[in-house]
Amino acid sequence: MGKYKGASQLLLLPKSTIEVSKILSYCNTRRLAVVPQGGNTGLVGGSVPVYDEVIVSLAGMDKIISFDKVNGILTCEAGCVLENLSTFVENEGFIMPLDLGAKGSCHIGGNVSTNAGGLRFIRYGSLHGNVLGLEVVMADGTILDMLTTLRKDNTGYDLKHLFIGSEGSLGVVTKISLLTPAKLPSNNVAFLSCNDYTSCQKLLLAARRNLGEILSAFEFMDHHCIDLAMRHLEGVQNPLPASQTKFYVLIETTGSDESYNKTKLEAFLLRSMEDGLIADGVIAQDISQASNFWRIREGISEASVKVGAVYKYDLSIPVEKLYDIVEEMRCRLGDNAEVFGYGHLGDGNLHLNIVSSKYDDNTLAQIEPFVYEWTSAQRGSVSAEHGLGLMKAEKIHYSKSPEAVQLMASVKKLLDPNSILNPYKVLPRSVL
Q1: Would you say the C-alpha torsion 383, 388, 390, 395 has a positive or negative sign?
Q2: Region 382-391: what's the mean pLDDT?
Q3: What distance in Å separates the CA atoms of residue 399 and residue 231, rounded to the nearest whole number?
Q4: What are phi and psi of 267, to 5 degrees?
Q5: Rounded to whole angstroms, how far apart are CA atoms 418 and 9?
Q6: Half-sphere exposure of 20 (CA within 13 A, CB side)
Q7: What confidence tens digit (pLDDT) does each residue in 6-31 have?
Q8: Is 317 within 8 Å of 302 (Cβ atoms)?
Q9: Beta-strand runs (E) in 258-359
Q10: How far apart are the first and last CA of the chain?
Q11: Which of 88, 134, 87, 143 is nearest to 111 (CA)?
């Protein structure tokens, strides 16, 4: 996004866990700050060296260690690119439990370290539920072997959860064992238009009730997003060119019986149209059409960057209030910026994007802290899936109580007493 500029004199590319251990041991002894890096696709500055920290990139650790074909358990190194893993497990008859627009660049270690959410969350849940084991190198170089492939292990504290989503501030993830769901043969994608946000909410409830076990994605976009995608993404086509509605919804279903699933989806869409929830819609007839639908949804973030400066906010908000902040922000900013709202409606996750020609202090002052205060008033989260990083480290109090933040600081001090791991990220300086 051009928002953060990192500065470092040293990049290290370890090829093994032992090398990561030696690096951290050396740096910890000399109190040299370290920034772990994956694919550098994060949106909150979590992998940016702020004051000449040593960069430790896991890109050289990209081996698949094993795959259990009976249980679908993948064990690999942290530097594996998500798309490469996806291709590998699909060839074995499975899929990755997470799918992101950045899958061609992001690393699985970074995904785990940021607890990445993505497009399959509604069906398969978070990485907290899909990661079975981790190998982590602690700040002092100690290798913590939690690389189990057991589905059940009820022996004491489940320590791996400390590192999932800790953004490299407690340890460096080096290996992962991950549960992958079976790849089901039937996949259908529908692109729909709705006249208002209330219809989108009712459609979500109807989809949960009527599609049930086959519902695998429920994404929404306002018409500003569609206009943006059509202007700035190459090779995409508007699935509903005649539609002039305010909102669009992408629904994906996945199941084991092609005929049953398609009939179920078609019946649901017909009923929803009769009930006035859908103004128009189309079901993808082939892989190319389905890819085009997904390209529009996944490409919104990429398209927004092409306009100019973009202020990105990743919020968890109760679904009934989720679009209110978009409309409020349009009123606040007027003609000074374009405001887009899209995201994972099935998960209550809004991506609020505000685009202007250049980064401007006056525009930022109109947005922050209002967007955080508003979200906090709804008991929402200021980071649904992107993490806190550098951007939101000082904003954690909007979503967590002082007692919770203080406990996090105590954990940080216990595991990283010299504060060498990814400093200035995740937690506010005042508590460290």
Answers
A1: positive
A2: 94
A3: 36
A4: -65, -40
A5: 21
A6: 30
A7: 889 999 999 999 999 999 999 999 99
A8: no
A9: 280-283, 309-316, 338-344, 349-356
A10: 29
A11: 134
Structure-token pair, residue 323:
């679009």
Q: Chain-wide mean pLDDT for the chain? A: 95
Q: Which stretches within 108-253 are classed as H helix? A: 108-114, 121-124, 127-130, 160-163, 197-210, 223-232
Residue 1 has pLDDT above 80, yes or no: no
Interval 113-122 mean pLDDT = 91
Q: What is the mean pLDDT of residues 363-385?
A: 95
Predicted pLDDT at 307: 85
The mean per-residue pLDDT over the stretch 287-315 comes to 91
Find the farthest-apart pair of alpha carbons in the chain and give their distance in angstroms, rounded. 69
Residues 247 and 214: beta-carbon distance below 8 Å: no
Dist. CA 125–CA 121, nearest whole Å: 4
Return the closest-CA partner of residue 41 out of 134, 125, 118.
118
CA distances 61 to 13, 37, 136, 145, 171, Å, are: 9, 12, 13, 17, 16
Cα–Cα separations (whole angstroms), residue 14 to 56, 61, 65: 7, 7, 17
Instruction: For residue 82, give the nearest of 72, 74, 71 by alpha carbon.
Output: 74
- Torsional class of 362: left (φ above 0), alpha (ψ -120 to 50), beta (otherwise): alpha
- Cα–Cα dist 179/133, whole Å: 10
Structure tokens at 288: 């190319």
d(C-alpha 107, C-alpha 422), whole Å: 17
Hunting for tokens 């992408």 — which residue is that?
A: 250
**What's the burial of 409, exposed, middle or buried (CB within 10 Å: 0-12/13-18/19+)?**
middle
Return phi, psi of residue 323, to 5°. -85, -10
Beta bridge partners of 94: 182
* CA atoms within 13 A of residue 167's CA, in its CB half-sphere: 26
Residue 101's pLDDT is what?
Answer: 83
Q: Quick one: pLDDT at residue 341?
A: 96
pLDDT recorded at residue 5:
87
Q: At what angle do helices 223-232 and 287-307 cross, to 10 degrees?
A: 90
The pLDDT score that the predictor gives to residue 133 is 98
CA–CA separation, 397 vs 405, rounded Å?
Answer: 7
Whether omega before 239 lies within 30 degrees of 0, making that bond cis, reads no
- 295 sits in which H/E element: helix 287-307
The pLDDT value recorded for residue 169 is 98
What is the structure's pLDDT at 232?
92
